């Protein structure tokens, strides 16, 4: 009786050996969870797939997001293309009201001042940054953000509270001061938003959209906090000019005077490929402008992308009047609202007891090496979806659904090599 050698034996004996560059290209096409299993074949495969250069190339081809599954209470690492859950990390406590990511670390916050930081690769808790926080009357829930400082290799957690009075605290996960919260006595130079859509952390700097003065016609501005020095920068960053003026809705006649976007609901902050980005939602034209900050000292922005998108619900016909029946027999009514310069387009179901507005927000997640932009579609009553946009052809491609996964953050590291730093 002839026995077939096991794969490990074949590899050790030198059978079926491929050139390294060919093997590199083949393994690069496989998802991370399969590569982790293939490491058991032989030492050479383990060495190749654990190399930081291979891990970096693999992560650029296989973008991942980190999300908290609302039903199981697990942290899921999800492949954006296939929609497969590559890794599950069980949390000690269910529920999540905030999530931020830096490289291979993810900070999950829940409750009033409770948060912990996980290593996405190992699943281990690298920092329990829960702090005693007594809920007071008229107080706001703290917002927790994770930051990474490239110059020192430290991870720090920033916690903010806006009411009853502004409060800012910092703790360090690695290095001096680990586990101790330090109150920042210096206050922000301006009033800042505590909404997660108006915050971003990149390069050791935390950025916050400034609460606008509606009596003054100025572009949006951004305040910044240096995590290395733990100080607020004295001056703000002036936002792109598109945040100040747009043409009047009708675009003709005597009403061509500029219309001011005084509502900051038209904007959010994001980080894309190492840049701070201001996302401008032009609801009137169903488009998204992505402005990249080129020079922080000069407040110089460049609009790299202008993306057209569809706002209609899935069952809403393309050809429609103000009122019509959809494929399911429901009556929909189109509405367009303007209030102090804020415009919105939506659709309401007006028959029966069910009445709601379906809005879809497109959140940019990452720009791929081939130029495609990955967006998360955040819908109120529907499942969240992931789509890619190709600026070369101006076309959209549906990728996957994010059922019961919220909130969502980009995993900038790699499941193959912990501590990947770009």
| Main beta sheet | 5 strands, antiparallel
Work out the strand percent: 35-45%
Backbone shape: globular
Count of DSSP H/I helices: 5
How many DSSP-defined strands? 30
- Which structural class best describes the helix and strand composition? mainly beta
- Cα(first) to Cα(last) distance is 52 Å
Residue stretches low in confidence (pLDDT < 50, at least 5 long) are 1-15, 246-262, 312-358
Average the pLDDT over all residues and give the rounded result.
Answer: 75
Helix content: under 10%
Identify the notable features of this structure and list them briefly.
four-stranded antiparallel beta sheet, mainly beta, 422 residues, globular, 30 strands
Describe the protein's architecture and organization.
Helix content is 10%, strand content 41%. By secondary structure, the chain is mainly β. The strands form eight sheets. Strands 12, 13, 14, 15 and 16 form a five-stranded antiparallel β-sheet that branches. Strands 3-2-1-30 form a four-stranded antiparallel β-sheet, with no helix packed on it. A four-stranded antiparallel β-sheet has the order 4-5-6-7, with no helix packed on it. The longest helix is centred in the first third of the chain and has 10 residues, at 52-61.
Concise structural overview:
The protein has 422 residues and is mainly β. It has helices spanning 7-13, 20-28, 32-38, 43-50, 52-61; strands at 64-69, 74-79, 85-90, 98-102, 105-110, 114-119, 125-128, 143-149, 154-161, 167-172, 182-183, 199-202, 205-209, 221-226, 231-232, 237-238, 245-246, 259-260, 267-272, 275-282, 287-295, 300-308, 323-325, 331-339, 342-349, 360-367, 373-379, 384-390, 395-402, 405-411. The protein starts with 6 loop residues before the first helix and ends in an 11-residue tail after the last strand.
């Amino acid at each position: 009786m002839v026995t077939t050698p096991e794969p490990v034996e074949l590899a050790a004996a030198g059978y079926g050996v491929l050139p390294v560059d060919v093997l590199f290209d083949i393994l690069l096409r496989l998802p991370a969870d399969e590569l982790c299993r293939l490491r058991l074949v032989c030492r050479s495969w383990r060495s190749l797939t654990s190399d930081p250069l291979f891990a970096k190339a693999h992560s650029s081809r296989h973008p991942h997001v980190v999300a908290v599954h609302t039903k199981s209470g697990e942290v899921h690492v999800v492949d954006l293309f296939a929609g497969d859950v590559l890794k599950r990390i069980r949390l000690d406590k269910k529920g999540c009201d905030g999530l931020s990511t830096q490289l291979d670390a993810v900070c999950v916050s829940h409750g009033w001042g409770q948060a912990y930081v996980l290593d996405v690769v190992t699943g281990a808790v690298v920092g329990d940054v829960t702090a005693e926080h007594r809920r007071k009357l008229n107080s706001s829930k703290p917002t927790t953000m994770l930051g990474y400082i490239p110059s020192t290799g430290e991870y720090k957690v920033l916690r903010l509270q806006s009411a009853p009075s502004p409060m800012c605290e910092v703790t360090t996960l690695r290095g001096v001061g680990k586990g101790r919260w330090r109150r920042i006595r210096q206050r922000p130079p301006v009033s800042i938003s505590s909404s997660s859509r108006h915050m971003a952390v990149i390069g050791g700097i935390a950025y916050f959209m400034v609460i606008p003065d509606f009596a003054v016609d100025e572009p949006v501005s951004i305040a910044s906090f240096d995590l290395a020095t733990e100080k607020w920068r004295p001056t703000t960053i002036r936002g792109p000019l598109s945040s100040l003026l747009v043409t009047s809705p009708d675009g003709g006649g005597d009403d061509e005077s500029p219309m001011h976007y005084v509502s900051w609901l038209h904007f959010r902050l994001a980080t894309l490929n190492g840049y701070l980005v201001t996302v401008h939602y032009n609801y009137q034209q169903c488009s998204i402008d992505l402005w990249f900050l080129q020079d922080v000292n000069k407040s110089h922005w460049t609009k790299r992308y202008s993306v057209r998108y569809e706002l209609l619900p899935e069952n809403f016909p393309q050809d429609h009047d103000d009122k019509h029946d959809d494929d399911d027999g429901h009556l929909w009514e189109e509405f367009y609202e303007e209030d102090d310069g804020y415009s919105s387009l939506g659709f309401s179901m007006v028959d029966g007891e069910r009445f709601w507005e379906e809005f879809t927000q497109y959140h940019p997640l990452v720009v791929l090496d081939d130029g495609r932009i990955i967006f998360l579609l955040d819908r109120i009553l529907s499942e969240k979806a992931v789509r890619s946009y190709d600026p070369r052809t101006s076309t959209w491609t549906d990728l996957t659904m994010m059922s019961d996964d919220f909130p969502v953050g980009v995993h900038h590291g790699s499941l193959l090599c912990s501590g990947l730093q770009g």
